[in-house]
Amino acid sequence: MKDRPMLSSVRSPRYALLMTLYFLRHATASREAPTDAERPLTKEGHHEARIAGKALHRLGTDPDFLWSSPLLRGRQTAEIAAEGFSHPPAVEVKGELENDTPTAELLALLKPLPSDSEVILVGHMPSLSEHLAALLGATSPENFSLDKGGIAALRLDTIQLGKAALRFRLRNEQLEKIA
Q1: Integer CA distances (angstroms), 96 to 18, 108, 140, in order
Q2: What's this model's pTM, rounded to 2 decimal places?
Q3: Helix (H) or strand (E) holding 174
Q4: Which listed residue, of 39, 128, 135, 156, carries a Cα 20 to 30 Å from 115's Cα?
Q5: Is residue 89 within 8 Å of 78, Cβ to Cβ?
């Protein structure tokens, strides 16, 4: 049995066939870099990513997949957050987590996965809020903004637009208290 300090298991029989997606916005990055894609995390960003990983673990998350955008700040956030888990999956880079990717392309990545998968998706605004809104069937992505290092979780019983349920959305201050 895995160590789950706050929750016994998110994979209770009731939710055994539901996929859970955790949308993690990259942590705070430097404004100084040769290109936008090469912006590294700041000291604050390292802390935010570490807290996000620890908080997800304390909430009972047991990720099967950890996907990141190819941008440096996304990859660094994913790698640092992964350290918060007892048995973290390898970080996989997915171009579909860059901005301007239609949610349908993200869904195409998810469809082949087992239906009870837990997937952490590390990406950027505004695309993360657009994906959240589309999956929830909402029309206003601006209502689903995430802090840098913030997390939103959705549960899906089918990989389809408008069919997800919001499990939680947490700001940095909340994640800090949980971690």
Answers
A1: 22, 10, 21
A2: 0.90
A3: helix 172-178
A4: 128
A5: no
Which token pair is 70? 């190819």
pLDDT at 103 over 60: yes
The confidence band for 2, taking pLDDT boundaries of 50, 70 and 90, is: very low
Between CA 102 and CA 84 the distance in angstroms is 30
Among 97, 41, 28, 31, residue whose Cα is nearest residue 72: 41
The values of phi and psi at residue 123, to 5°, are: -150, -150
- pLDDT for 16 equals 52
The tokens describing 5, both together, are: 């300090």
pLDDT of residue 170: 97
* Closest listed residue to residue 23, CA positions, set 173, 174, 175, 168: 168
